[in-house]
Amino acid sequence: MTARESEFAIEARGLVKTFRTARRRPGALGMLRALVAPERVSTTAVADVSFSVGHGQLLALLGPNGAGKSTTIKMLTGILTPSAGRASVMGIVPYRERVRNARNIGAVFGQRTQLWWDLPARESFRILRDIYGVADGDYRSRMREFDDLLELSSFWDTRVRHLSLGQRVRCDLAAALLHDPPVVFLDEPTIGMDVVVKEQVRLLLRDQVERRGQTVLLTTHDMTEVERLAERVVLINHGHIVLDGTLAEIRTRFGSGWRVNATLVQTEPATGRCPPGLRVVRQDGARVIFEPDGTDGVAPPQALKRVIDRYEVTDIHIQESDLEDVMRAAYLDDRADRELDGELDGETVA
Ligand SMILES: Nc1ncnc2c1ncn2[C@@H]1O[C@H](COP(=O)(O)OP(=O)(O)OP(=O)(O)O)[C@@H](O)[C@H]1O
């Protein structure tokens, strides 16, 4: 099957990854025991992950620390072989055909550079140009484009080891996109960047998807990034998929979806006189946030009218619920499910 014949650019079906590591006990005796009779323990980083990404889609893979996001990406880039399940990227099984897969993908691991540590970043770009056989004209125009957006030329002649984290990740991003791969994996690509550079990276990614039709799989802990970029979100927790949907679907399922933000003339608690179908989420003096209480399925225009009818209002608008709150609700829901299934043992709530 050729790359374009496969319906999805990225497919993961029942992926599992278990690591076997030596357990280290404390103290000198523990160290000795580890040398003589090492005790091995299994960690299941990815327990059961299935999802697919269509050609030209940008999907955000989200989850708390240790959820299994990086391990999933490593299986999709061919760095790790799954313990069970299967993966395909542009019709290729990444861990079986690493070299063919490498031509189709670009990858940025924000925590770790792909560049040559002791060389100036520009030297790494030239080496990558030769490895991937990028034509001189294409190389020059892409470097110009990356420089325009990411302002690399002020530091690309500095050795990579001397770059700041944000500068280094910008160079990593350019290196990953240099051969214009159809699929890009970005594991925390804006780590260490200031807000201005973050915005530049978002512009670059949007352009890669909209103009070049690239497929992007992104992990991030930055919800603004998700709101700005992702059409779809897959949420992973403890190596399991918790949800898979558009931001709108996720908001509907785990958040009220919207809230009424009002500034009242009165400053006493609004709770006692709350309009029907609404409850007070927060009140700070005259500023009150209401959300639907779930009793009558009130819609945003009705909710505005009910608040205005009940109070004297100086300012009022509908606000979409905060994505951080929605994600937290989704984790807590998953946690409650697993508690019921008896899977959790003494774990603290994030
Ligand atoms: N090589 C390894 N050997 C043993 N355990 C590992 C290895 N790599 C990852 N793990 C464990 O697997 C789990 C998932 O790790 P992973 O790096 O995939 O999480 P993550 O979702 O990317 O987290 P973060 O948001 O912190 O980057 C963690 O408990 C981690 O300690």
TrEMBL record:
<protein>
    <submittedName>
        <fullName>ATP-binding cassette domain-containing protein</fullName>
    </submittedName>
</protein>
<keyword id="KW-0067">ATP-binding</keyword>
<dbReference type="GO" id="GO:0005524">
    <property type="term" value="F:ATP binding"/>
</dbReference>
<dbReference type="GO" id="GO:0046677">
    <property type="term" value="P:response to antibiotic"/>
</dbReference>
<dbReference type="InterPro" id="IPR003439">
    <property type="entry name" value="ABC_transporter-like_ATP-bd"/>
</dbReference>
<dbReference type="InterPro" id="IPR003593">
    <property type="entry name" value="AAA+_ATPase"/>
</dbReference>
<keyword id="KW-0813">Transport</keyword>
<dbReference type="InterPro" id="IPR050763">
    <property type="entry name" value="ABC_transporter_ATP-binding"/>
</dbReference>
<dbReference type="Pfam" id="PF00005">
    <property type="entry name" value="ABC_tran"/>
</dbReference>
<feature type="domain" description="ABC transporter">
    <location>
        <begin position="10"/>
        <end position="263"/>
    </location>
</feature>
<dbReference type="GO" id="GO:0016887">
    <property type="term" value="F:ATP hydrolysis activity"/>
</dbReference>
<keyword id="KW-0547">Nucleotide-binding</keyword>
<dbReference type="GO" id="GO:0005886">
    <property type="term" value="C:plasma membrane"/>
</dbReference>
<keyword id="KW-0046">Antibiotic resistance</keyword>
<dbReference type="InterPro" id="IPR027417">
    <property type="entry name" value="P-loop_NTPase"/>
</dbReference>
